[in-house]
Specification:
Distance between the termini of chain A: 3 Å
Radius of gyration of chain B: 35 Å
Largest sheet of chain A: none
Structural class of chain A: mainly alpha
Number of helices of chain A: 5
Largest sheet of chain B: 2 strands, antiparallel
Order of helices and strands of chain B: HEHHHHHHHHHEEHHHH
Shape of chain B: elongated
Helix content of chain A: 55-70%
Distance between the termini of chain B: 101 Å
Oligomer: heterodimer
Strand content of chain A: under 5%
Number of strands of chain A: 1
Structural class of chain B: mainly alpha
Number of domains of chain B: 3
Helix content of chain B: over 70%
Chain lengths: ~110, ~400
Amino acid sequence: MDNRSGLSLDLPSVAAMTWIRVDAAEVAELGVALAETGADLLLMGDPAADRWALGPGESGPALEELLGGWRRVRLALGGSLSELGEAAVGAGALYLDTEAGVSGSLFGGSW
Amino acid sequence: MTGLPPMPGNPGGVRVVADRLHATARRLDALGRVLARLRDGATWEGVAGEEFGVRLRAAVPVLDAVGARLGGAVAPLRALADALEEAQAVIAVAVQDESDADQAYAVLEDRAYALVVAGSGEDDPALLLVRHLQQEQVRVQAGARARHGAAAERFREADSCCARVLRSLSVDEVADSAPYRLLAAASTVGHDVATLGLVSATVPELRPVAAAGEAAGVAADTALLVAYGEGDWAELGGSAALMATGGMGAVLRRGAVAGAERTAQGAVSTRYLTTRQRLALGAAAEARASRDAVRAALDVPPARGTPTALTGGPAVGTVRAPVAASGLAAGVRDAARAGAARGRAAVAAQLDRAFRDDWRLATANGPAAQRLYTGGASLQVGTAAARATRPVTEAEPAGR
């Protein structure tokens, strides 16, 4: 089976000039961490809900501002991490395909 | 006489917020360090690889800034929780003492009134004793008020200190600009007002208000989309690799059913989610599923780690040599065909049930989730069909 179609998916790859140890499971795990963090950022609730606990002073509004006053970056970062996560999981699967190809050649299998 | 006010707030709740911020800051810090290692240790190739690298480089400083913003609030919040707890304890006792003394004073006043009615003069020993006891209660009340005031003042100082730190943390490179805040607020308020539309069905006077609110919300959303690139469906176009693999279809379908649960009464929506939030949840669920698939593939023992086993096909030991059809008796062949047909029908029924089950969940989440699910299912079917269709424009290389 020709695996070049799999390699042409335009997923991230590491250049040959730099050596970096890549483990498919770790890359996939990183992808999940990125995607989950991205989702959590996008799902952050209403900061006003936490305000009441701080009592009657100035800290309540200040906390609300701290938690809610970076909406734009939060949404952008959440979306970006989600996409990075998807790409990393895809890259993990791609590395796995590549390892499988090496394994196939060692065992005399064909692609 | 009015009683002393209690101190509102919840120290335990403040500590929960601080713990959450601490955990989030640590998580972002750990993620930032991993991404920084990747950023510094690798060069990315290809269009998507370069894009990946660019986003990686952009994400690291933002993660650092957000981690500093949220993590910096942990210590002042914990100090505030301690101050609030101490103040509440002192104030609760002061409030009780003041209330008790107030009631005791009132009882003594009744006693003094009875003595006066009975003919006692102000120099009567019994009345003098009552007046003395009343003065004691007044002193108790004064002491309680003083402790209340001092505790409230100590809390005000702690609160002021905490607020100062929180405000300084809020002025950073990730803070929203003033125009953006106006638009975001208009979007929220507009859509909140638009929910009056449900009420206006029975209260016609509210109909124009709801319509104006929705218009304001939509206008603000449009401005956010145009000026700041905040759009739900705009996100879809960027994931070309996912579109190519059919992964986006799964993301859409998983996102469409997020926030809905199966109950004995049917599917119910348990949480309102925007389309963008659904997409993120779908992406995370799909990432977990892909990660599990990678893990499962890596769990294959080395001796069985053939290419087909690694990529989801059967291992060598499970592959049976094909048996020529001519070698089978007609009855056996028919039975095999019937069995295969039953198997296909069972699988189709199972898939159909799964589809209908998910569709019910998406339906419970509303029309937007339904559109998401339909889009995802169409994308998956389309991708599968594209894979199954052999391209006719490419000529077979000679010698294969």
